[in-house]
Amino acid sequence: MSNLAYQIQQRQHQQQHEEHQTRKNKPNIKKKAQVTFGEKLLFLLFIGMVLIGSIVVVTNSAKIYVVNREISALQVSIDSQSKVNSDLEQQVMELSTYERIWAKAHELGLLLNENNVKVVQD
């Protein structure tokens, strides 16, 4: 029996040695870190926020562009109206000269009567 016990012991030792050899020969395989549901949810929320933020920025810049275009159109209109106003002021100055008024009055038959002239002082 001692021979049988010795054989069993040798087999066990040999199996342990083989297991030890196979462990050494096998490369260490690391398990992939799995992404949890919470991490996926956070990632999706982050992507969603980035998309919403970029959409808001683009729409705001488009609105600003439209307002700036309207402002420049109004500025052109204001400049044009200012020019018309200054031209009309110049025309009023030319038409309200004393010589022109006197010529127009004489043309209509009005005469200057010095007895009816009253001088007004400030």
| Rg from alpha-carbon coordinates | 52 Å
Query: What percent of residues adopt helix (DSSP H or I)?
Result: over 70%
Q: What coarse outline follows from CA principal-axis ratios?
A: rod-shaped
Q: Classify the oligomer.
A: single chain
Uncertain runs with pLDDT below 50, 5 residues or more?
none
The total strand number stands at: 0
Kindly name the structural category.
Answer: mainly alpha
Overall pLDDT score: 87
Number of helices: 3
How does the major sheet shape up? none
Q: How far is the first residue's CA from the last residue's CA?
A: 150 Å
Strand content: under 5%
Order of helices and strands: HHH
Question: Can you characterise this structure?
Answer:
This protein is mostly helical. The chain has a domain at 78-109. Helix content is 76%, strand content 0%. The protein has helices spanning 2-25, 37-95, 98-107. The longest helix is centred in the middle third of the chain and has 59 residues, at 37-95.
How are the SSEs placed, and which strands pair?
Layout: H1 2-25, H2 37-95, H3 98-107
Entry keywords:
76% helix; 122 residues; 3 helices; rod-shaped; mainly alpha
Outline of this structure?
This protein is mainly α. It has a domain of 32 residues. It has three helices and no strands.
